[in-house]
Amino acid sequence: MSGTAAAARLPDLLSARGAVLVFLVFAFTYFLSALVRAITATLSPTLSQEFALTPGHLGLLAGGYFFGFALTQLPLGNWLDRHGPKRVVLAFLGLAVLGCVAFALADSFAGLLAARVLTGMGLSACLMAPLTGFRRWFAPTTQLRANSWMLMTGSLGMVAATLPVQWLMPVMGWRGLFWSLAVLLLLSMAVIFSAVPRWRTEPHPHTDNEPVESGYGLVWRNAYFRTMVPVGFVNYGGMVAVQTLWAGPWMVKVAGYTPGEAAGGLFAINLSMLTAFWLWGVVTPRLSHRGLRPEVLIGWGLPSSLLVIAAIVLLGDRAGWPVWALFCVSSTFVALSQPAVALALPPQAAGRALSAYNLVIFAGVFLLQWGIGLAIDALSVFGWDEATRYRGAVALFGLCCLAAYAAFWRGWRRIERDRAATLGA
User: Fold this and answer.
1) How far is Cα 364 from Cα 23, in angstroms, rounded to an integer?
2) Which residues of 4-18 are buried (b: 16+ CB within 10 A; e: fewer)?
3) What spatial distance separates the first Cα and last Cα of the chain, rounded to whole Å?
4) 267-322: per-residue pLDDT in tens?
5) Contact 227, 295 (CB under 8 A)
6) CA–CA separation, 81 and 87 (whole Å)
């Protein structure tokens, strides 16, 4: 294909320099959002002591962020397709600044929870906005790499939420940390305003000549989207729930770590995730060129995470941060589903496709974070000690992961049969 023809088919494609700049700007913002998301795991001992929080309270507090996240996803998708990433993310980040300020000022559990919900709403566009832009601005193979490297910057934010936060606590206190985060989010808004290109709203004759249905009907009816829903909700959502909350309390309550050692363990877990996503960014374009589609990689790779979660339950107090890191890393296969869902639908519906799938993921995070905490509390009916109740709750989570993978497997094999039938016709 000639360069002129390629430009006609991809009218919004950015130059290499422009693409790098846009990626870095959004990556900085997503780094901050991941730091804010994960910080409750490191602060959980301090907040539990100051506000007398039970495991159920702690799970609800951490999950409140994801509840706020989930509330905005459906309108967010429509707004992204209509108004573009720049305008939408700037409006949402204003809410995130208010949420961080409210958390810094909170003097009760209810105040903390309301602030976390508001913060989750405000930061809910920090990944969907760039991924929607990448659908138009980047070539398809570059989108897979950019998605993995955005998740890598998110892991970097989670790394920053562990030991660095632990080191800053004696100096700034947890309230001072949230004031600082509010200032950094304001800085990211200024950078986005100056660097991100405007969104083309007028139709392009070479690419937008076929009308695309409004609303979410075309997304929910898409067979590929529905196939990815079970693993997005349980396996992806569960990975995030563990990474951002439950790995920390497990290390303290079950493995016998001190809070400082647990922060070090979370640092190592998130560093492992960072490395995994960097590697995915390196290899996914090559795997794509070889015909290894995301659903194939998920189908054969994700079962490794099921084996690891079973090992965690069996090991009990011997399951420290290395085993949890292995679980999180082996779960990253499912992260390939996110850009794949966007590519399965027309570019004009990318915002809706991504936001609908993100709703699935973060609804899963909220329910699993809260559900694991409730299970830990509820299993006391058997007279089990706290460490045993943690193991029981993780075992229940593992069974949910297995059921979700089985549902994905059925949908995946159906897609493979349909594809073979189409090629044979």
Assistant:
1) 27
2) eeeeeebebebeeee
3) 27
4) 899 889 889 999 998 898 888 888 888 899 999 999 999 999 999 999 999 999 99
5) yes
6) 11
